[in-house]
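Memo to structure team: turn this sequence into structure tokens by end of day. - J.P.
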Amino acid sequence: MMKLTKNLHTSQTKRYFLKKSHGIMHKTENALILILTGISIALILRLFVIDFLKISGTSMEPALNSGQTIFINKLAYGIVKPNSGEYFFQWGSPKKNDVVIFLHDDKIVVKRCVLIQGDKLEFLMNSGYNRDCCIIIDGKKIPVSKDEYEKFGNSARVPEGYVFVLGDNYNSSLDSRSYGFVSVRNITGRVMGK
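Reply from structure team:
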């Protein structure tokens, strides 16, 4: 009788510990699935939906200051291929005054879109600045050098599929005056806030 009770007690103990370890394993599996799902969602959001960037430089002052962190909407104009500056699918293009990001010389650049496709380019020669001429945008005279002016050739308007971008602090900005029009296919997001 004693042996039977001992075996019964041992069997119950084994079942108890097996149930307990199965419960712990089940909770661990659920936690692991939850963690992996969270990481996957965060990765998808970071690659295709949102991004955060830290401003470096003064070309967008006073709107954006060096050291500030900005929020980027990567879905503003389409679904961007990660780290490429190109789209899988594009459904829109920048509007005037959108602050956009794009790749230039393998660097992420933040500038304001001041002219869009079809907008007229107006230049004023011998503007009285230290430079040879200026481009007129929304009534403002923005200095450009002769070399910068010649970059635009005989363009009377911003070409189809391109924009003209400037830094808000255009006296210390490398922008469309330096490297020409920016293709809307290369614009990978719009600044949504800081």
